[in-house]
Predict the structure.
Amino acid sequence: MTDIDHPKQVDSIIVNSSQLLTMTESGAIPGGAVAVQDGVVIETGKTEDLLRIYPECPDIIDAENQLVMPGFVDCHTHLVFAGERSGEMEMRLKGASYLEILKSGGGIHSTVRATRDASAEELFNLGMERINRMARNGTTTVEIKSGYGLDEETELKMLKVARKLSAEHPLDVIVTYLGAHTVPTETDRKEYVRWLTGSSLETFSEYAEFFDVFCEEGAFSLEETKLLLDAAANAGFRLKVHAGQFNDLGAAGLAASSGAISADHLENIGDDDLDLMAEAGTVAVLLPGVPFFLQSPDYPDARRFIERGIPVALATDFNPGSCPSYSMQMMIALGVFYCGLTADEAVAAATLNAAKAIDREDQTGSLEPGKKADIIILDVKSAGELPYYFGTNLVTKTIKDGVLI
Ligand code: NIG
Ligand code: FE
């Protein structure tokens, strides 16, 4: 128990956890409890201590000996789009590769066609269904990228839908502009890069906090990525990069030297770029659902990042082409089984480090006084049981800003 000034009253206390994972220096508190007021964590401690300090608390939530921890932060998703691409999965199962499908006008281009055809209302309704599924699976904060418009009208439509989801759904939504997802089939490459780096940036910067680029064969080269990042930074965007998913083009190093907050994917990255990330403090966002869904043996190796002190985050990359999964619990399992994370590291990667990847670690990702009461209760006893019972939704309660949703 810390010697803080206890307020007289709190709105609610979650009690009787198997363990409370605070993701702070207090670590896991056996039988821990968390007191909440006005949507904010007031204090954490032992159940008997908090019940003694706040004997009048009107709302006692019994965790019934289940695990209590911060809600998941899904820091990399492409949640707003129309259509689906299960046909491409079938093609891949017969031997086609993701990049072949993209280069032949399918892949991202196929979702661009469907998204251009969809109304804002349709996209919003689809987004609502998806974000609700995420909330049921324990996500309390979600980053959403545009990138299936690749023209001014549709990119704006996507960004406005993401903003509307942010306004109307209890989850916190962080918005990223990804006009640089790939070059649209109807436009000349040079012309498209000129448009991306020109005055359109100012328009988009009103709707999005971050700017992201897919640096990859079939998308943007390292040189183009540099132009794009420089222009976006000048327009006031914070930066993110899809780096090293299939090929090591040096994008992770460029992300680090450009001051990007995160480099994402990172299956293919050289030691020099790792050192640059370590020096710059770039967060490594690993997306193990992607190699899993694409049936690739190339998972990112979390140990290489952790050895150098680089914060490792996990995210779903939820999108119709390379990972249609809503489940951060599944990403924890994949992170443990294929990326070399321990269960404790994977849980930190899905919460506090993921909050760092979107610059929200002062608000969420751990349970400590002053942070949002973004809390989940799961039907397991410890972090280690999360990967162990992989593949089912273990979340029994999702609490966002102190409110059960
Ligand atoms: O992060 N890599 C690029 N973008 C997405 C996939 C988008 C798609 O296939 O629709 C990703 O994997
Ligand atoms: Fe992505």
Notes: The mean pLDDT is 97. Residues 78, 107-108, 111, 214, 242, 245, 290, 317, 319-322 surround N-(iminomethyl)-L-glutamic acid (ligand 1) (CB under 6 Å). The two ends are 29 Å apart (CA to CA). The longest strand covers residues 172-180.
